[in-house]
Amino acid sequence: MRELLEFLARGLVEEPAAVHVEEIEEIEGEVILELEVAEDDLGRVIGRGGRVANALRAVVKAAAVPAEKRAIVDILD
Amino acid sequence: MEGAENAAETLPAEPADRVRAVLERIVNELELDADVVVSESDGEISAEVEGEEVGLLIGRHGQTLDAVQLLCYQIAYRGHSDRKRVTVDAAGYRVRQGEELRRRADLAAEDAIRDGRAIELEPMGSNERRVVHEHLRERPEVETYSEGDEPHRCVVVAPLVTD
Asked: Is the ipTM of this complex over 0.90?
C-alpha cells in the first residue's frame, strides 16, 4: 500500500524526490498513510475538487483488501 | 523499497507505456491474475485489464475503475499539453455498462418525445454522462444537457421543439 501510494504520487508530481509516505498503524488492521509532497505539487495530488485525492484513496483502499486491512490516506499540507 | 524509490525515474516516457506501467503495478498490488493490454489510436489510449476475477479493480458502480482511469490519465500526461482521452476497462465492464446506459438513454428519449417533456436520468459520473450525451446526439428529435452538482449531477433528455 505504502509503495503503491508512493509510486502513484511520484507519477503525478513534478518533484518525485520530495514524495514521502509515512505508514502509521496505531490500531491493528487500520493503516494511516500520510502523503507528503512538495508544496507546488499539492494541487497535482489533490486535483480539481479533490478528484485526484479521491482517486488515490479509492485505489489504495482496494490495495488494502488483499492485506485484509483498512487504509486511510492523509495528504499533509 | 528500491523499486519504489526509483519508481518515478523508471516510468517510461511515452504516455501509452506509462498507462501500462501504472496498470501493471496496480494489478500486481491488488493481487489480480490479469493481463494488461494497451492500444493507442489518434484520439485515445485504451487499456483493458483481462482476467476472471477483477471485481476489486472495478469497485462498486465502477468507482475504483474510474479512479484508476483518472490516475492513468494524470500520470500519462503529466507535463504534456497534447493530451488524448484515456479509457481503462476491466473484463469488458465498461462495454456492458455502456450498452445498459445506451438502452436507458433510448428509453428516456422515447418517453421525452412521446410525453413532450424533459426526462431526468439518475445521477451518474462524468464518464457515464458522456456516453449518454454521445449516444443521443444521433437522435435529432431530442437534446441532452447535464444539471445539478456532483455527485448528484444528472443528464436531462428533452424533446426538441420543431416548428
From this structure: yes
